[in-house]
């Protein structure tokens, strides 16, 4: 798929009023190219233009086979953050234990591996009494607020 086709597919995936990425607000070629080069088989589900720390960023929600992945790019195509859904049995045992200690009687029902630069975190979803709680831990099981 060429960058032009990827841009067309991404622009077609956006259907939210005020979040349209067409015309002068289109996805920068550097972002489209960086995404396509790293994830050539991924399907773009949604694209949004956002602000983080006063700077414009682009979020691409995608599916690559069975893997759901959300990526945040700078306008130059640098990856700022990757959120990747992972099977709950892939969560490190020390993280699982810490989460289960913090929320007694809860069941781990979902997880994401979040990478920001060289920092990796695990966001876990626990369910207890029909309610969900979301907690974040570093790979050693230390809670991150």
Helix fraction, binned, reads 10-25%
CATH topology of the largest domain: Nuclear Transport Factor 2, Chain: A
Tell me the β content: 35-45%
Query: Which descriptor suits the 3D outline?
Result: elongated
Helix and strand succession? Answer: HHEEEEHEEE
- Number of continuous helical runs: 3
Overall strand count: 7
The number of distinct structural domains comes to: 2
CATH architecture of the largest domain: Roll
pLDDT below 50 for ≥5 consecutive residues: which ranges? 1-18
Estimate the mean pLDDT confidence.
Answer: 85
Derived from helix and strand composition plus strand pairing, the structural class reads alpha+beta
Output the strand order for the largest sheet. Answer: 1-2-3-4-5-6-7
CATH level 1 class label of the largest domain: Alpha Beta
Radius of gyration (CA) equals 17 Å
| Main sheet properties | 7 strands, antiparallel
**Cα distance spanning the termini:** 40 Å
